[in-house]
């Protein structure tokens, strides 16, 4: 615990929650407009804006809505995922800055306080946290959409149009099909390096099984705004940092788990057949 206190990680989580809470109060209670403009605050602006919207609008607490939120506030606005995660040569001297991970941690803290307000479960957040640095999906590669297109992992026409009917009243000065990139593949381009969106993958998995679904999900539309406690005693160290899941296998790669299970079943079946043959030969 001493190492955790010295890192001041929970204090940083607290600061993000307090700033987001102030934005929520200004918008909800006072009906004010809020402009988030922080000096040297490119990263924290995305954190505060995302958390505030998550608390204000229950749509962003659904699987579909959270995808829209991340695509809009992080991918569409050009968060420097590779630079902050120290994944390219140009960022080696700057070190690892877990900006997106902090955001997911804050969502985890809010989810713990309001377990019935979220359609997705904690594993969903852990899955995103793991794959934000795994380099498996194009979603978190490079520092902007232009770099993804130039590298060939995304196509120019790859636009999701994330503003659904829930947001049709927003004046975007554009049609919905050309707003936020980084989502479903709508392009005819089939280059050899075209990557998959992590959210497309999650949607496919969710259609097969409730791997990411929160069975306690019961949205309260009469009281849609969340006001989580940000006092340090109310916060906890996310067990994503503490669990040793990777020691037993890649728990965030379902295909590999399924492959291992099939191999074990085939080995057990083969062993059973061999035992049966021995029994027959002895008889």
TrEMBL record:
Species whose genome carries this gene: Rhamnusium bicolor
Entry's family note: Belongs to the protein-tyrosine phosphatase family. Non-receptor class myotubularin subfamily.
Top-rank taxon: Eukaryota
Gene Ontology molecular-function annotations: guanyl-nucleotide exchange factor activity
Protein name: Myotubularin phosphatase domain-containing protein
Listed InterPro entries: Myotubularin, Myotubularin-like_Pase_dom, Prot-tyrosine_phosphatase-like
Domain Myotubularin phosphatase: 1-242
PANTHER family: MYOTUBULARIN-RELATED, SET DOMAIN BINDING FACTOR, ISOFORM A
A cellular component term, taken from the record's GO annotations: membrane
């Amino acid at each position: 615990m001493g190492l955790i206190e010295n890192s001041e990680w929970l204090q940083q989580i607290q600061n993000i929650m307090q700033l987001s809470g102030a934005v929520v109060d200004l918008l909800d209670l006072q009906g004010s407009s809020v402009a988030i403009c922080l000096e040297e605050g490119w990263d924290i602006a995305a954190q505060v804006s995302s958390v505030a919207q998550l608390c204000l609008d229950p749509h962003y607490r659904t699987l579909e809505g959270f995808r829209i939120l991340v695509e809009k506030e992080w991918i569409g606005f050009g968060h420097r995922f590779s630079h902050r995660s120290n994944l390219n040569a140009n960022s080696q001297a700057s070190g690892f800055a877990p900006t997106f991970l902090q955001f997911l941690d804050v969502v985890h803290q809010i989810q713990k306080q309001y377990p019935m307000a979220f359609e997705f479960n904690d594993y969903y957040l852990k899955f995103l946290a793991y794959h934000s640095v795994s380099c498996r999906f194009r979603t978190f590669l490079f520092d902007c959409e232009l770099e993804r297109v130039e590298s060939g992992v995304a196509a120019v026409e790859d636009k999701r149009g994330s503003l659904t009917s829930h947001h049709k009243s927003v004046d975007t000065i554009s049609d919905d099909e050309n707003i936020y990139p980084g989502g479903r593949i709508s392009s005819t381009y089939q280059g050899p390096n075209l990557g998959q969106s992590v959210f497309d993958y999650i949607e496919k998995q969710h259609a097969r099984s409730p791997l990411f679904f929160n069975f306690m999900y019961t949205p309260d539309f009469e009281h849609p705004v969340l006001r989580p406690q940000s006092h340090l005693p109310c916060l906890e160290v996310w067990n994503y940092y503490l669990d040793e899941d990777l020691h037993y296998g890649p728990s965030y790669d379902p295909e590999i788990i399924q492959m291992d299970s099939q191999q074990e079943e085939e080995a057990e079946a083969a062993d059973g057949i061999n035992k049966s043959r021995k029994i027959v030969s002895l008889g």
